[in-house]
User: Fold ATP-dependent RNA helicase DeaD from Thiorhodococcus minor.
Amino acid sequence: MDTPDTSTSFDELGLSPAIAMAVRDLGYESPTAIQSQCIPHLLAGRDLLGQAQTGTGKTAAFALPLLSNIDPDVRRPQLLVLTPTRELALQVAEAFQGYARNLKGFNVLPIYGGQAYGLQLSQLKRNPQVIVGTPGRVMDHIRRGTLQLDGIRTLVLDEADEMLNMGFAEDIDWIFDQAPAERQVALFSATMPPAIRRVAQDRLVDPVEVRIEADSETVDTIDQHHCVVTRFHKLDVLTRILELEPFDGMLIFVRTKNTTTELSDKLKAHGFAAEPLNGDMNQEMRERTVERLKQGQLDILVATDVAARGLDVERISHVVNYDIPTDPSAYVHRIGRTGRAGRAGRAILLVEPRERGLLRAIERIIRRQVPAMDPPSAAALSETRIDRFTQEVLKTLTEQDLDFFYRLLSRIAQEQEVEMMDIAAALAYLGQLERPLEVQEDPIRPYRRERDDSRAERGRREPRRGRERDGDAGRGDRQDERRGNQRPRQGGGDADLVSYRIEVGHQHGATPREIVGAIANESGLEGRYIGRIDIQTDHSVVDLPEGMPREIFKHLKRVYVCGQPLRITLADEASGRRSWGAGRDAGDGGRDSAGPRAKPPRFSEGPRRQGGEGGSSRRPSAGRDGKPFNRDARPRRKPRD
Assistant:
């Protein structure tokens, strides 16, 4: 929230007595920066162009002065507010109703798509003084003749940039043309792109321009952190955050409507009270979902940017950007859902390694760095679960009647001749089967940022792995040096390997380092699990552990190396392709020819080969099946770019 302008009070702004009394009744003490700057100009009837982020109090900035100018005795629409979404329309209408509590005969009506026409038609017959609506439904009522704009004194565009982004530019122009020529216009926007400037030039007359600088934006009141994590580990990181972060209500942002459903289903499977919020839901369902969050029946909403517009729920203490926004300014809108009205808020941003550029763009927009945080460790998660388990045991001992269970356990101890501690240990084991108290470290390990960011570290590795030798034989020697000796997986034994063909080779400029880096980064597989690499003229063959998840296999087909898609396939799959080790030319960097093998070789003891600049230092998370791929963390559907 903006820092209040302590030099001015609401009583000094010139609001009508009824509105000023409502402000006092609501507990408002001092106006925010945008309120103190906008209210006098709007009271005077001036056109206004306001730039302010979500959460700065801009609804009151236009609602209070415009309500002061409303004539409640005139039973016709006098004020039209256009909003990009139905959620925002409902929020603004609710705010108007609260501010006008002392105006007798006042009515405000929100109209939006998704609500039955019959209900809106009956309410329009009551001749409300204020209409708050989305452009499409407002146009429908104007065309039907059920909404007349001839009495409109003021027209407000709230979040105008978002309306233009959603394709409402022509609709807004058409609505302006239906309104009286002599009217007041107030336009509010979080950003001021050229399209908004053009609307202001065409539709506003000698406007007052009010801008709230970045140093007073909501983002400064929110504790922000980012966590670098691969795509296939994001769900693991998120669920650990949910267990370790003490939150009241949480809003998780994703890019697509399908992801809202998929992710909320996965979170519910992990035991969290989560529901999706997206544009495919009808309005009744959306309102019911938001109300459940307000009442504490839900803890988590998984939403898209558009669906969350206008969402203001006091319970939201945390915002998680599961998918980083491609538009940096959208980040401010997202995290503005928390930390509102001076309340504490926390925002966490999950960043894939390839998305660091978007992170830097966000930092430029908000004019501050978003500090890094490591993914929650297994040790911290185990400790939290043990503490919770201990508290539940102690609570049960003090609050429950356990006489029957004392007698039962005593009988078991006597009849089976076992110690009470053994019985207690067995019961504790059974009680934690669904959510183990002892969490393995495998799934997540902090991303080693120094791999990409430290030039000195790269310099130390380059000479050993990147020196050039003359001739094809030298190239083969160099490749053998890098891939010939592999160390077995720690704690998991040797892994069986399967040969895959990838459509990138010498003619594309491919090197083992680039291939290993791409596969490791995109699959979540640690570089040392990648076996031998045979680079030929137009393709390469690479050994990878068997049991590759289908989702990872499909994703690797679209990964690019040296400008070429890998288009990975099993080496023996296509007819006419030679199997690994069969009949290759030594000059193409081959190894000793042993002929086709019946079973892929196991890793042999030897020095660990690094993954190179593009590789990953992360362990691949051997799951319950002991395989090096992180089966628990992989998405169940096709990964999205």
About this structure: Residues 379-431 form one domain. Residues 1-7, 443-494, 574-627, 629-641 have pLDDT under 50 and may be disordered. The two ends are 35 Å apart (CA to CA).
